[in-house]
Amino acid sequence: MSGDELFAAGRFDEAMAAYRRVLAQDPGNAEARMGLDAILERARTTQPNAGLRELLLQAYADEGANWDAVGWGAANQIVVGWPHDNDLLKLAADPLLLEFLKKSLNRDAALERKLLALRRAAAEALLATDAPPPEVVALAEALAEQAWLNEYVWPDDATVPDGPASAMFRPSAAPRAEVVEERRLASEIPEIAPIVDAVSQSVAAMYEANPYPRWTHLARRPMVDVRAALMRDFPHAQTVDFGSGPLQVLMPGAGTGQHPLTVASSYANAQVTGVDLSRASLAYGKRMAGRYGIDNIEFLRGDILDLSKLGRTFDHAECVGVLHHMADPRAGLLAIVSVLRPGAFLRLGLYGESARSIVVKARRDIEAARLPSTLDGLREFRRKVMTGEWRRLRALTDWEDFWSASLLRDLCFHVQEHRFTVSRVRSLLEGSGLKFLGFEFNVGASQRADAGAGPLALYASRFRNEPTLSDLASWEQLEREKSGLFPGYAFVCQKE
Ligand SMILES: C[S@@+](CC[C@H](N)C(=O)[O-])C[C@H]1O[C@@H](n2cnc3c(N)ncnc32)[C@H](O)[C@@H]1O
Prior knowledge:
The structure is a single chain. This protein is of the alpha/beta class. The protein folds into three domains: 3-168; 194-345 and 419-495, Rossmann fold, CATH 3.40.50; 357-412, no CATH class. It is 47% helix and 11% strand. It has 21 helices and nine strands. It has helices at 3-8, 12-25, 30-42, 50-61, 67-80, 88-92, 95-103, 109-128, 134-149, 177-188, 198-209, 226-233, 258-266, 279-291, 329-338, 357-368, 375-387, 405-412, 422-429, 454-462, 472-481, and strands spanning 247-252, 270-276, 297-301, 314-320, 340-350, 434-439, 442-443, 448-449, 489-495. The strands form two sheets. A seven-stranded mixed β-sheet has the order 3-2-1-4-5-9-6, sandwiched between helices. A two-stranded antiparallel sheet has the order 7-8. Bound molecules: S-adenosylmethionine. S-adenosylmethionine is lined by residues 200, 203, 207, 212-213, 252-253, 255, 258-259, 275-278, 281, 303-304, 320-322, 325-326, 332, 410.
C-alpha cells in the first residue's frame, strides 16, 4: 500500500515509514513530503521523542515542507521537552525551538506562556551586557522573527527600551525590506474600478491595515490537473472540454496570495488572476510571486461586484473565506458566475453558523466592552481570553486564527460577516446557474481528509440511494440530526 492509502486508512506509523522510504530515494517528492507533513502535524507525544524531533528538523531544513503544518508537531515536542529549570542557555541551544520560532506561527497557549517568560529572560540577558552570548543573540533574533510572524500580538513591555531587545516586543521604526518592497509593488497594481460599495470600502480598509494572512513560505505540491481531479472526486459533474490552452483561473478575494500562488504553482497549465479589495494584500502576494519566480499570475485590485468590467471569462474559480464578508454574498456569487464559462468549476468556502457560535459571543463581548480593532484592542482581547477573565471565550484558543493580529482581527473583529447553514447554502445557490457537486472535508494546514472522513461516510450510510453525496436537502436533514457536523462549508459547484 502507498503512504497515502495507509494514511487514508488511519495507519499513520506505516504511512510515515512509507513516506520516509520515498523521500530517502527522492527528496523532492511532493506527495511524500505532503503526506509526512500531515503526519507531523498530528504527531503528539507526552515525552520527548528523538525520532520525531529529527523528522521535524528535517522538515524545517526542506524549503518544500509545509512549516505551518509541522509547527503543530514541533510545538508539542518543544513543550514536552521544555527544561524544568527554564534554563536560558539550554533553550537557546535547542535547534528545534529556533527553527520553530522563525518558521511556524505558534498556536499553542501553554507554549506561548513559556515563550513570554523566555522572551523576558532573553531581553534581560541582552540588556545586562554589551557582549551577550551569541546563543542568546540568536534566540532573541528567532523570537523577534516570531513577533513579526504574529504581528506583535503578544503583549508589549514598556520597560524594554527601543534597541536590540525591543524587536521581540514591537516593530522597529525602520521598516523591514519586504515592507518597503510591498509599498512600491502596491502602487503598480492595476485597478478594475474604484471601490464604491460602502461595505466593500470598510472591508478594504480593514485588510489594507491587516493583510490576511501573513505567510512566509510556499509548500511544495504535486502538479495536478485540477479539472481531471474534480471529475474524479465528483463523477456526476458534466464533462466539458476546454481545449488545450492554459486554464484561466479566477481567485476572487485573493488576499495575500497564499492560495492563488499555490494554485498557480501546482495546477497544470494554469494562468491565474487574483482580485482583491486590498492593495496591501495583493502587494504581499506579488512580492511572494517574485520570490518564488511564479509568473503565471496577475493581481488586480477591485471589487468582486465589478468582475464583469474585466470583459473576459474564466475556466475555473476558487473563492475561500470571502463571500461571507460582502454586504450581499449572493450578489458576489452572481458576479463570479457571470464571468465563468459554462462547465467551469467553482470552489467555495463559507463560514458555518453553528461552528462559529463562540465567535458570535466574542463579537458581542467585544462590542459591549468597546474594544477597538487596533493592535492594543487585539492584545487586550487576548489578555482577557487567555487569563480567563473572559472564561466563556477560552475555547477560542483552539482556533487556528487566534494567533496573529491579522488572523485574530479576521476571526473576531470583522466589520462584516455572514454565517451559513446548509439551508442558507441551498438558497445562495438556488437560481444562480451553479450546480452543487459536493462538500469537501479537508482539515488543518495540510488540508488532508481525515481517516474515515466522518460526514461523507455518515451521509453514504444514511442515504444509500444517493451515491453522489450531493443532495443538499439530504445534507440539510443530516445537519439537523447531527449538530457540529460542519466546521464551515467547503464545496465545489459547476456552472451549468
Ligand atoms: C479572510 S481573507 C481570505 C483571503 C484568501 N482567500 C485566503 O483564503 O487566504 C478575505 C479577503 O477577501 C477580500 N474581499 C472581501 N470582500 C471582497 C470584495 N467585495 N471584492 C474583492 N475582495 C474582497 C478581502 O480584501 C480579503 O483579502
